[in-house]
Design goal:
single chain, 555 residues, alpha/beta, Rossmann fold, six-stranded antiparallel beta sheet, 17 helices, 18% strand, rod-shaped
Length: 555
């Protein structure tokens, strides 16, 4: 609730302090005195657009400051806390300054803030109705919030939005995963081809050296056979073989050892050499007999070596590296298979989230349809009493395909102020005064559906008079029972119902016109009501009429 509003050098306003009370606050005064300027100043305070034209002529800056009691507005306390501002004994001081060159600054509780900060707080403190650029009723977002609040569906609407965002996040993750998997699948196909090639080669560590040795033996088979056979002959098998010469030497040493026993040891060495040479000769004979003269096998060995060289060029510098590459490809393919399983799990989770989202959206639609019918009927029923005879009002749900974060439908408040004319968006068919009365009717129907503590109505009495004025006043008084309501009015019947009556007066005697505001009570209030009735405020009949209205207002 607003406690007071201080305005300095704003448009025609020089310096004002406006006290506000709970219940209905009426702001009255002569035409052109600056009543609507107060509403503009309040709009600036709660985050409205700043412009150099708002600064009073001859001054370098305009200042608007407001004090609000937020002890019963937890949403405001939460927003202040989220933005890092503290409340002082349940009060918050908002301040906005506009310089003559158009720049503006903002403060909350003495700390620098932004216009966005003020706007955020203003959204849960004040609901302005008058100038179109400040009318939340024209916002489709506000219309949706009103409908959901009335239908007790705000929590379900938040659930739908949260599920929508979850679905969106899962879709984005899945799309990214699918792109990555398509790239991985291309890699997997190549990896499988490479792995199949390596596996088909049936490589063995050390095989390369064995192949080279076998190829060398086969390529030189004839030489090896001939030479080893010749060596066998020279050592043991032919005439004058080495073993024969060793045997002769042994015999000669044996005879000499009879004369000198020290030669016996040398004779034994010759004997040992004889046996060793004989063994070598035997092995050479076996080797010569076993030498393979197979040209076909030699070709196969060479083909195998060529195959190994090709694999080495493609996968590594050695057979061992090719084998290691094969193991790495196996691991990569296992990971790719696991990635495919992750993709299936993500699709399952997405399907579940979409089902939950659409189920919640369906339940929200049913609640909205019911709330829309009740709001439409209740609001339209109040139109005749507010001077909107023949007007029609409807909350329409337009199907969305696909659904959005806010459900399966777009919410639109539609109305017509003239019989026989089709329904249209409020912004297209309602004047400022009519729009304010539509909002008044809505607020009467919604009652406690929203918890904004302060309502401000400007131009609500445009084109209203007589009995309709009395009914509008009654509706305002009823709405003000649940929250602070500020109304700028020309109607005496509305002003008479107010619990706080403020009069805006312009002093034209000065060189530069200045406007002041004062709260009127007693005789001063009687005279102001009498003035508004169009009579002489000092005449007894006018004052009696004013007293009668004030008496009705208190009843």
């Amino acid at each position: 609730m607003l406690v007071d509003l201080r305005i300095r050098h704003f448009a025609v306003l020089e310096e004002l302090t406006i006290p506000l009370s709970p219940g209905l606050n009426a702001i009255t005064g002569e035409t052109g005195a600056g009543k609507s300027v107060i509403v503009r100043a309040l709009a600036l305070l709660v985050g409205g657009r700043a412009s150099a034209g708002t600064v009073r002529s001859g001054k370098d800056r305009a200042l608007v400051e407001g004090v609000a009691d937020v002890r019963k507005v937890p949403a405001a306390v939460r927003r202040l806390d989220d933005m890092g501002f503290e409340t002082d004994d349940g009060q918050v001081v908002l301040r906005r300054e506009v310089r003559s060159e158009g720049r503006s600054r903002a403060w909350i509780n003495g700390s620098l803030a932004t216009a966005g900060n003020l706007r955020s707080i203003g959204q849960v403190l004040v609901d302005l109705h008058g100038q179109h650029d400040h009318q939340r009723l024209l916002s489709t977002g506000f219309q949706r919030e009103v409908l959901d609040a009335y239908g007790d569906s705000a929590g379900l609407a938040q659930e739908v939005e949260a599920l929508f965002r979850e679905v969106g996040a899962l879709k984005a993750a899945l799309a990214e995963k699918e792109v990555r998997n398509r790239k991985l699948e291309a890699r997997a196909a190549a990896a499988r081809r490479d792995l199949d090639e390596i596996r088909a080669a049936e490589l063995r560590v050390g095989e390369e050296a064995q192949l080279k040795a076998a190829e060398a033996r086969l390529a030189n088979a004839e030489v090896l056979a001939a030479e080893t056979e010749a060596l066998h002959e020279a050592l043991h098998g032919g005439d004058d073989a080495a073993t024969d010469q060793l045997a002769t030497a042994k015999k000669r040493l044996d005879r000499l050892a009879e004369a000198d026993p020290d030669l016996s040891e040398l004779a034994g060495a010759i004997q040992e050499a004889y046996h060793r040479v004989a063994d070598v000769a035997s092995e050479l004979a076996s080797y010569a007999a076993a030498v393979d003269h197979d040209p076909a096998r030699l070709d196969r060995l060479r083909e195998r070596q060529a195959a190994l060289q090709a694999l080495k060029r493609k996968y590594g510098g050695s057979v061992e590296e090719v084998v290691a590459r094969g193991r790495a490809l196996e691991r990569e393919l296992n990971e790719l298979d696991a990635s495919g399983m992750d993709l299936r799990e993500m699709r399952r989770r997405l399907a579940e989230a979409e089902a939950s989202w659409l189920d919640a959206a369906d339940r929200l639609t049913l609640r909205r349809r019911d709330a829309a019918k009740r709001i439409s009927a209740g609001t339209e029923a109040l139109f005749p009493g507010l001077g909107l005879e023949g007007g029609r009002f409807s909350v329409q749900l337009e199907a969305l395909d696909p659904p959005s974060a806010h459900g399966r439908e777009r919410i639109r408040f539609m109305a017509t102020m003239n019989p026989g004319f089709p329904l249209g968006p409020l912004a297209h068919i309602a004047s400022g005064g009519e729009l304010s009365r539509v909002m008044l009717a809505l607020k009467s129907v919604l009652a406690g559906a929203d918890d904004l503590p302060t309502l401000v109505f400007d131009e609500i009495d445009a084109g209203v008079g007589g009995a309709v004025a009395n009914r509008v006043a009654g509706q305002l008084r009823a709405v003000a029972e649940g929250r602070q309501t500020v109304v700028v009015t020309h109607l005496a019947r509305i002003a008479a119902r107010a619990s706080c009556h403020l009069v805006v007066e312009k002093d034209a005697c000065r060189r530069t016109a200045a406007t002041s505001v004062r709260r009127v009570r007693g005789g001063d209030r009687v005279r102001e009501i009498a003035r508004m009735l169009g009579g002489d405020p000092e005449s007894a009949p006018s004052r009696d009429h004013a007293r009668a209205l004030l008496g009705e207002g208190r009843s």
